[in-house]
Specification:
The complex is a heterodimer. Chain A is mostly helical. Chain A has 15 helices and no strands. Chain B is mainly alpha-helical. In chain B, strands 1-2 form a two-stranded antiparallel ribbon. In chain B, strand 1 and strand 2 form a beta hairpin.
Amino acid sequence: MHKTKRFFMYLFLIVAAFVSFFPFLWIIVSSTNPSVDVTRGRLLPGTYFMDNLRKLLSSVDILTALKNSLLISVSTTLLAMLIASLAGYGFEVYRSRAKDAVFNLLLLSMMIPFAALMVPLYRMFGKITNLLPLIGIDTLAAVVLPTMTTAFLIFFFRQSTKMFPKELLEAGRIDGLSELGLFFRVYAPTMKTTYAAASIITFMSSWNNYLWPLIVLQTPQKQTIPLLISNLGSSYAPDFGVIMLAIFISTIPTAIVFFVMQKHFVAGMIGSVK
Amino acid sequence: MRATGSAIRLKASAVGWLFIVPAVLLIVIFYFYPMIQALILSFQTGTGSNLSFNGFGNYKRLFTDSMFITAVSNTFVYLIFQVPLMVLLALVLSVLLNDRNLKGKSFFRTAIFLPCITSLVAYSVVFKYLFAGDGLVNSLLLDLHVVSAPIQWITDPFWAKITIIIAITWRWTGYNMVFYLSGMQNIDPSIYEAARIDGASAIKQFFRITIPMLKPIILFTSITSTIGTLQLFDEVMNITKGGPGNATTTISQYIYNLSFKYSADFGYAATVSYSIVIMIVLLSIIQFKAAGDRDA
């Protein structure tokens, strides 16, 4: 009885793990096969990897898309870390009744769905395009600006700041550090794990963002990776090997982030509940 | 001494606002201001920037707009079937992975979590091909004699919804599982020991101990999944394009189509978007109610 129970337990887990992993296997194998073999359902690695790569590079500008995605994700992450940690620190360390009220108001923004923002945001950026072409429609800055501050990140930093030993700040004050100096010299260096977890969440969602770039970016030179993959996927005569290679390439950055920083990754996710 | 202390505090409090200002400004500009704009827009009609007020006309239109009703009912089909299915699956997997004698725990956990690293667009395109009429899933089912003719996963109105549900479940089950696993670490093992001594079966322990103890986390994940599902866009856009017909179209996709695909009907699109806001507010009230019950 006990043995059959264990058997079914392992069977269930093995099936779940296999189903979860199978699409990855298929992506990797298919990126080494020609399109015909992918449609035939070939599950063995082939020799067409270099061919697919050459075709991919000549048919679409994936390098520009990679560069755009990287520029957007890195600048979003850096700005988000600075702005959200300053705010989370400010709300917690200089706590007052008025600030708490503002904080609660900010939290309300977490309930606003992006679906409700896309039309007014598009019109807003449309209006400023003539005045400020550098941050208007079809610029990378227009992707970064509305996505770089979220109430969730501010909340996340505030929660983590509750654990921060405030005595360190008193000690710093005695040493003559300014308030801003305390933040950069004392607080920021001790909160490395919080920054790591928050950066991962921000980088991942920025790298994978689809709807807002789809609306605000218009020329092919501004395309990001998700836009490029979506276009490849909806082409009329798809070359499956090439598409799978593009998907494979697009997943490498997030896979690296995941495997290198697995602990922070999970900590960041769980931090959102506490 | 005390006076100087509070003086420093007062000055510090003023400095504190400077830390907060950039974030507050950005949230006001990119969340609250557009929300007010959308509210104003929702009472206007016209094409592009040629807008005029028409009172509650747009809101009345919602009730007779068959496309809107289809999008809402599709979204609720995903909600009602996908969220419970995923929560249950994630719970069962967490219970199995929480077993102290299990071998290969971290391997299973990593493998099941792995779908979360894919971008919504990338995995959607992969699923579109896997579930194509002549795709791998069909050839597998045919080879195993599970079906005698290929299932029209993408082109049949019923199966297309199933495909979307399978895809979302694949992508998010591991994500939810991680929350439950971390919650289970806070359950005292002696509770299970006592239950075992009293002769409670594993299934009984699951329903009488695990689920009640995890209630707040289950609630949290259900609400986030619900809000996510109400905004579903990437998957439907890239797997079925909303088709066949409008069998899989979601509310977000309808807003996108109204604004950027059809005739730039921004006013009505804003009205439709406010329907999502209302649904989210209603569901959040339910969440607060449920959370209140827990404290009582």
